[in-house]
Amino acid sequence: MEPWLGFYFDRNIGPEKRSNYALRETLLAAKHKSPGGPDRGLHLRRHPGMVSCFVKQALLDIARDTNTPFEEPKGREGWGRLAQKLGVKGIHIASATPSVRSGRSR
Asked: How far apart are CA 83 and CA 73, in angstroms?
């Protein structure tokens, strides 16, 4: 799940609707409407392409390290099948950006 451009800064809606909690609640409502569907959201902010590369490389590394036979996927469905074959249940990517570095605000 990726919020729309300006999601966090839209002054036309209250802060309670612009939070990560609100995104989570939206995902849970969608899960309730579609049992058996995704139950986790991926919030990528500004670097979805970079995250995609990290995830794909991680899947290739896991397959290699576990001696799981595979052909490198060519599309979205193929990457999903590889993740499923490897038993991947979820992917969590976190970044830490300190607000203060060397005494200077960022």
From this structure: 10
Q: Percentage of the chain surpassing pLDDT 90? A: 29
Mean pLDDT over the full length of the chain? 77
* CB distance 83 to 59 below 8 Å: yes
Structure tokens at 73: 């996927």
The neighbour count for residue 93, using CB atoms within 10 Å, is: 13
| Angle at 76 (CA atoms; ends 45, 84), nearest 5 degrees | 100
d(CA 94, CA 44) in angstroms, rounded, equals 9
Does residue 106 have a pLDDT over 50?
Answer: no
Q: Model-level pTM? A: 0.50
pLDDT number for residue 94? 66
Q: DSSP of 4-55, one letter per residue?
A: PTTGGG-TTS-GGGSSHHHHHHHHHHHHHHSTTS-------TT-HHHHHHHH
